[in-house]
Specification:
One of its GO terms (cellular component) is cytoplasm. InterPro entries: GRASP_w_spasm. Helix content is about 25%, strand content about 30%. By secondary structure, the chain is of the alpha+beta class. It has 3 domains: about 120 residues, no CATH class; about 120 residues, ATP-grasp fold, B domain (D-amino Acid Aminotransferase, Chain A, domain 1); about 55 residues, no CATH class. A 5-stranded antiparallel β-sheet has the order 16-15-14-17-18. It has a 4-stranded parallel β-sheet with strand order 2-1-6-7, covered by helices on one side. Helix 1 crosses helix 6 and helix 3 packs across helix 4.
């Protein structure tokens, strides 16, 4: 059995599903944002004997059956304020929202544990290493990394030679009809009081490299983001009118070998890695996202990663 763990209208999942349908291979897709619908999802766990029952669209899963699970997405952020009484004040609304998300996160972990019986994960959803842990591991493996600091006193770094980013990862906010996203920024002017932040040496780059790692193979793309003021610091601050030039890229073998060591250490079969090629010719590792977008690398470079993921899943199923 092959399970695809995702959310509805997730483009990368949709395109992998196309290959299953075209090749007439059996699979089951579970859209986790539909799990709150009792007509779609049925769950029962007996803690006394640790036996679980999971049903999708009135079909009960055989949890004892050998299966390969591709984890693509399990969360979709939703605003639940519209379900609250208008008389609830901001403070209680915030606390209630936190309660709902905590409960849902805990349940998702229970569900993942239930599905894990006789399963090969591609990959397990809960990586036990955060961004800083991964930087330390990458450094030990032999990667160059930018000088990195965690501090709440950045007076010595506000000279334009350092950048800052969130410790946890990027997030988007929706206000009215506009979306506001947190990006990597150059440290120039700061307030006197703020939470400890991640500060890194700003690397002067020739170009950025996005590498999608798939079970031992690296598929890389060079992004010439430094040629555009809007994307120079963070290429995710996309210029929709004049997009960055991107081309297929082959990393040196020694860098690909380090990537494989890193992904083995993290127990990951897939992930998107961000690397900078500096003006002095060095390769600097920045981070790895286990569920990073791969369509942005696949299509411009004609890597056909959606098909390759399908083939990997089928191959693993046949060899269980």
């Amino acid at each position: 059995m092959i399970l695809l763990l995702s959310i509805g209208y997730e483009r990368s999942t949709d395109e992998v599903v196309d290959h299953f349908l075209y090749n007439k291979r059996k699979f089951l897709r579970i859209n986790c944002d539909n799990l709150k619908d009792s007509e779609y999802f049925d769950f029962h766990l007996n803690l006394s004997n640790q036996k679980a029952k999971v049903g999708i669209n009135n079909t009960e899963l055989r949890l004892d059956e050998k299966k390969v699970i591709w984890y693509r997405r399990i969360r979709r952020r939703k605003n639940i304020d519209r379900f609250l009484d208008n008389k609830i004040d901001f403070h209680n609304s915030r606390l209630f929202t936190q309660l709902v998300f905590k409960e849902w996160e805990l349940f998702l972990k229970i569900l993942i544990n239930s599905l894990s019986l006789n399963s090969l994960w591609f990959d397990y959803p809960y990586l036990n290493k955060d961004k800083l842990d991964i930087l330390i591991i990458a450094k030990k493996i032999g990667f160059e990394i930018p000088e990195t600091f965690i501090t709440n006193n950045v007076r010595d770094y506000a000279d334009g030679n350092f950048i800052t980013k969130l410790l946890s990862g990027s997030i988007s906010f929706i206000h009215d009809t506009k979306v506001y996203t947190t990006y990597t920024s150059v440290v120039k002017k700061v307030r006197q009081k703020f939470l400890p932040a991640l500060i890194q040496q700003k690397i002067e780059k020739r170009y950025e490299i996005r590498t999608f790692y798939l079970d031992g193979e690296c598929y890389s793309m060079a992004i010439f983001s430094q040629n555009d003021k809007q994307t120079k610091v963070d290429f995710r601050n996309y210029n929709r009118i004049k997009p960055n030039r991107t081309i297929p890229y082959k990393l040196p073998q020694e860098i690909e070998e380090k990537i494989k060591k890193l992904m083995d250490e993290l127990n990951l079969k897939t992930g998107s890695l961000d690397i900078i090629r500096s003006t002095n010719g060095k390769y600097y590792f920045l981070e790895v996202n286990p569920v990073g977008q791969f369509g942005m690398t696949s299509k411009p470079c004609n890597y056909k990663l959606e098909q390759k993921i399908f083939e990997k899943l089928v191959d693993y199923e046949e060899n269980l």
